[in-house]
Amino acid sequence: MSANGDLEIYNISDPTRIFRVSKLATHNQMGLICIKKEIAYISKPEGGLLIIDISNVKSPKMIKKIVINSYSRFIVLYDNYLAVGTGKGTHFYDISKPKVPRLIKIYSEFPGDICRKNNTLIITSGKAGTNILDISKYNHLKYLAVLVSISIK
């Protein structure tokens, strides 16, 4: 990401001679990034998701912009699925067809952080505690456990 928030792709094959290969204007919409094959999934800090074809690194192309009316906190990629954590919950997408990503479910708790290990997703949340989900089937998320902290006075 450049200083003005655009996507920049660099050649780092020779660490002594790093150079920029291309730049795609995203107008300060860059946040976190995940890459699957030749597609980059980029969270937009002010809300949403950018999907960019980077198969030709010299000429990256915007495939899709998804608007989410809340800032994006994180993204996690798993097989053909993408989780985008926002101020309005975690949005789960089927990205098997990157040009037409499909929203599967919105997990409504406000996410603090997220971690994935194999088929398990752990989402921390201030009010809801820590939620542990089985994500082996994204269209059928299954709660494995909810951990809450108890304040004793």
Verbal overview:
The protein is an all-beta fold and 153 residues long. It has one domain: Methylamine Dehydrogenase, Chain H (7 Propeller), CATH 2.130.10.10. Helix content is 0%, strand content 52%. The chain has no helices and 14 strands. The chain has strands at 7-11, 19-24, 33-36, 39-43, 49-53, 61-66, 72-78, 81-86, 89-94, 102-107, 113-117, 120-125, 129-134, 142-147. The protein has a four-stranded antiparallel sheet, with no helix packed on it. A four-stranded antiparallel sheet has the order 7-8-9-10, with no helix packed on it. The protein has a four-stranded antiparallel sheet with strand order 11-12-13-14, with no helix packed on it. Strand 4 and strand 5 (49-53) form a beta hairpin. The N and C termini lie far apart (47 Å).
Topology diagram in text:
Elements: E1 7-11, E2 19-24, E3 33-36, E4 39-43, E5 49-53, E6 61-66, E7 72-78, E8 81-86, E9 89-94, E10 102-107, E11 113-117, E12 120-125, E13 129-134, E14 142-147
Antiparallel strand pairs: 1-2, 3-4, 4-5, 5-6, 7-8, 8-9, 9-10, 11-12, 12-13, 13-14
